[in-house]
Design goal:
The chain is mostly beta strands. It is built from eleven helices and 42 strands.
């Protein structure tokens, strides 16, 4: 399988190189000798002094504002995915908070193993801890509007020794615009060819002078996007609403509903499908400010910050009659109540998230007489997620249940003080060495805010026979005799009588945070680091770094890194690095709790995630989390062949004690169900309300060791034609494979083990051509996704490679205005549909894949620059 997966990558690279050679033979470089080459200068990874991209000992991509603007997306996550093949983000419907804050990955590592910086200062994390998988808790990159960006630097190499915990896979540094005059404005709108997903984005940026030589630069964005639906009507073996679907089985026991015109009319009123799969409704307002004020003697004050507010809503799983939530209940007067009285066609809960994010960074920097440069800074940041759940019930409250709930909030807070210094040293080598060093102190807090009472309280129907109608021997009590006498159909001798029905506790779909699971998790840490780099000879550059970090909850760790670049000729150089890393599990990962509907065995059941150090997970065998450690290797080359720029970098990332969620453990009240019954007893013994209605449990643990290996290839070729036109060809490709380096079977079942190693495409590429002639610019881009597999109950579905083609045309109307028309995935390609029955409930495509499954999208954009 491995050879088959590598072959498409080599073919694509060969195709690109051959294509660029042909293009060169048909053009001339009329401006080659007269044009000056402006080398891109980077600050990421340099620590102390900027270097050029070509001179960097580790792979770094730099994307300027023009390149960022050329991508049709306005969500910064999608922009990065378009530009960096090893950066992937998926659309996650029906995934709790991941519907609103999408986790991403770099080089196969989740978000929390990539450090995010803004103006070279650490960006605070979001409040969302993704349930399942690695429990990712990283910054919400979407809060950074693209129009605020001067450039983005993506360091594709471990850098924990330079920047601290989290920089295992790499570093992304967002550099804000810093102009003191002028500005820009854009309006972007479009929709999918399925006639849904209409969206618009309005962005603006403007600069003002501050004092004689300073600036204050302001950026803002307002956006709105409607939902999409890529689904079929709900039809499964346990309940079906589409009598024309081959799955439909009249003998399954739900014919009374499909033949009930009142019920089916209510279903029809819910829309084309009762359970949509697609992107959520979203709207957002985001603002950034960047300012700098020079003082005397080369000193300066600086500050930057943001405020972002966004709202989104999406559906949960459809609740059908008899699913354990919509059940007949016997009221205190002996009559029957059903939630169908509130929702005649069943119901699909809708989950709303309001995300508020703000940050403020301030600093003072300058240079002393002895050449010591200093940068003293302080930052604070907060991300808050406020949840609302509508169109659902707390089943245990019966007829008294409201249909809208506030299940609680999540808040992540950070404060950091930092001092960075650098100094040139005469080390007797080809050029002065740069010594960089510094210290930092960081305080973190993760808060789970209690929900409103109705969202978590256990109502009367959380227990059997809440009104005391029946005796243990099946005879009615005095209360039972009284209601029977008033005409009730109560039958205490029938175990299926509605008097004995037990239903779930809390707002169904996402129970609120109760006092037992609402808490404040805090810690602090400090770090010291040193970094030295120098051109040892005219051909050899070397860099070494050490960093010691100490966390109040995990203790200390020393990590290091060495990197170098050797120029063998004027056009060819080798580069490589070796580094160790350390990532302390976040307070959120240690404290998060969640009860929601998931699909551990292919059908929806209520599952609970509990803190590994809490009494519930402890009763299930969990232990306290400990830090992850890593070793990172890279080896590559850079080459300039005429106008062709080519880099290739191989890497290996070994992570020990990787934090991951265990496969969902079944829970059952049936004493004959073995370990599932033991899990029920553990939940009940730990005091979990509604333990009888929970079907599965899981928690985070240090589950296993992993090894991730791959290669990044980046090629760029500008071609200048004798007509005055120019064409820039670019190709970026990533091959990435993760595998276990220890036995995970104690924590993961067969399906989760298989999916960990095979679910994501093994390779991905982006190839583009951008042609400019006069005021017209044409762009074509191919987004390439390699094969990937899915596993279900011993069956494997292999998904073929996918190519999504984007086309765009820009026209510069005058010095002020530019208009753009374009399309993404213009050939309306979709990944293959589910063929092995792994995706239930109307889902057609793998919603967790990085391959887009929304279809073709067309847009128009108007830009104004002044």
């Amino acid at each position: 399988m491995h050879n088959a997966q590598r072959k498409p990558l080599s073919l694509m690279v060969a195709f690109f190189v051959a294509g660029t050679a042909i293009s060169t033979s048909q053009s001339i470089y009329a401006q080659q000798e007269t044009e000056e080459v402006l080398e891109e200068v980077i600050v990421t990874g340099a620590r102390g002094r900027p270097r050029t991209v070509a001179d960097s000992p580790v792979p770094i991509d730099v994307f300027d504002s023009e390149t960022i603007e050329s991508v049709s997306f306005t969500d910064t996550n999608d922009v990065l995915q378009t530009l960096v093949p090893s950066y992937n983000v998926s659309r996650n419907p029906i995934s709790d908070g991941a519907t609103f804050i999408r986790p991403a990955s770099l080089r196969g590592m989740p978000t929390d193993k990539t450090l995010v910086l803004v103006n070279s200062k650490r960006r605070h994390r979001s409040a969302l801890v993704s349930i399942g998988g690695s429990g990712t808790q990283g910054p919400d990159v979407a809060t950074i509007p693209t129009i605020a960006l001067k450039n983005v630097e993506v360091l594709r190499d471990g850098a924990a020794a330079q920047y601290g915990s989290d920089a295992i896979a790499g570093v992304i540094n967002f550099i804000l615009k810093d102009s003191a005059d002028g500005g820009s404005f854009s309006v972007d709108t479009g929709q999918y060819t399925e006639s849904d997903g209409q969206q618009y984005t309005i962005q603006g940026n403007i600069g003002f002078p501050l004092g004689a030589n300073g600036f204050i630069n302001l950026s803002g964005e307002i956006s709105q996007a409607d939902s999409t639906t890529r689904a079929e009507q709900y039809c499964e073996s346990w309940f079906c609403l589409d009598t024309q679907n081959p799955v439909y089985n009249p003998a399954a026991g739900y014919t009374t509903y499909t033949e009930d015109p009142t019920f089916m009319a209510a279903v029809a009123a819910m829309g084309d499908v009762v359970q949509p799969w697609g992107q959520p409704n979203t709207e957002a307002q985001r603002f950034f400010v960047n300012a700098e004020l020079p003082l005397a003697n080369g000193r300066e004050l600086y500050a930057f910050g943001n405020y972002s507010s966004s709202e989104a809503d999406g559906p949960f799983f459809y609740r059908y009659p008899g699913n354990g939530t919509i059940e007949d209940l016997r009221e205190a007067d002996g009559s029957i109540y059903s939630p169908l009285e509130k929702f005649p066609g069943g119901f699909t809960p809708r989950f709303f998230g309001n995300v508020t994010d703000y940050s403020l960074v301030g600093g003072y920097r300058g240079e002393l007489n002895n050449g010591l440069m200093y940068d003293l800074s302080a930052r604070t940041g907060e991300n808050k997620v406020e949840y609302t759940l509508k169109q659902t019930v707390n089943p245990s409250l019966g007829p008294d249940s409201p249909t809208s709930f506030r299940p609680g909030d999540l808040i992540n807070e950070e404060m950091q003080l930092q001092a960075d210094f650098s100094l040139e040293l005469d080390a007797g080598v080809a050029a002065p060495a740069i010594l960089a060093f510094g210290v930092s102190y960081m305080d973190e807090a993760y808060k789970i805010v209690q929900g409103e009472l109705d969202s978590y309280q256990a109502g009367p129907y959380a227990v059997s026979d809440p009104w005391g109608f029946c005796n243990d021997d099946g005879s009615p009590t005095a209360n039972g005799i009284a209601v029977i006498g008033s005409g009730s159909s109560l039958n205490c001798a029938d175990d299926d009588d509605a008097a004995f029905t037990v239903v779930g506790v809390g707002s169904n779909g996402f129970p609120g945070y109760s006092p037992e699971f609402s808490d404040n998790y805090e810690r602090d840490s400090y770090a010291v680091y040193g970094d030295i780099s120098a051109d040892v000879t005219d051909a050899l550059f070397m860099q070494a770094a050490l960093r010691y970090e100490d966390y109040s909850d995990f203790g200390g760790e020393l990590v290091g890194k060495v990197a170098g670049r050797l120029s063998l000729t004027d056009t060819f150089a080798l580069r490589g690095s070796l580094g160790t890393g350390f990532r302390a599990p976040t307070p959120g990962q240690q404290g998060t709790t969640n009860v929601s509907t998931r699909l551990p065995n292919g059908l929806p059941v209520a599952t609970g995630l509990f803190p590994p150090s809490g009494p519930v997970a402890r009763a299930l065998g969990a232990t306290d989390l400990k830090p992850e450690t890593s070793t990172n290797y890279t080896l590559g080359f850079t080459s300039e062949i005429g106008e062709l720029s080519l880099t290739a970098d191989m890497y290996r990332i070994d992570v020990d004690d990787r934090v991951y969620s265990v496969s969902t453990r079944d829970v059952s009240t049936n004493p004959s169900s073995g370990s599932a019954y033991d899990n029920y007893l553990a939940l009940s013994g730990a005091g979990v309300a509604g333990a009888e209605t929970i079907g599965g449990v899981f928690y985070f643990t240090n589950a296993f060791d992993t090894r991730t290996q791959g290669v990044d290839i980046v090629a760029t070729l500008p071609v200048f034609w004798d007509s005055g036109a120019s064409t820039t060809f670019t190709a970026s490709m990533n091959y990435n494979k993760s595998e276990f380096a220890s036995d995970p079977s104690a924590f993961l079942n067969a399906e989760d083990q298989y999916d960990f190693e095979n679910f994501d495409p093994t390779w991905r590429g982006v190839m583009s051509a951008r042609h400019s002639i006069g005021d017209l610019t044409l762009m074509a881009r191919a987004n390439l996704y390699g094969p990937y597999d899915n596993f279900n109950s011993g069956q494997v579905q292999e998904f073929d490679p996918t190519a999504l083609i984007d086309l765009e045309a820009q026209y510069q109307i005058n010095d002020l205005l530019r208009i753009t028309f374009g399309g993404r995935n213009v050939f309306d390609q979709y990944p293959e549909k589910d063929a092995i029955g792994d995706y239930c409930c109307g889902r057609l495509y793998s919603s967790g894949t990085a391959v887009s499954w929304q279809g073709a999208y067309y847009y128009a954009r108007l830009n104004a620059s002044f």
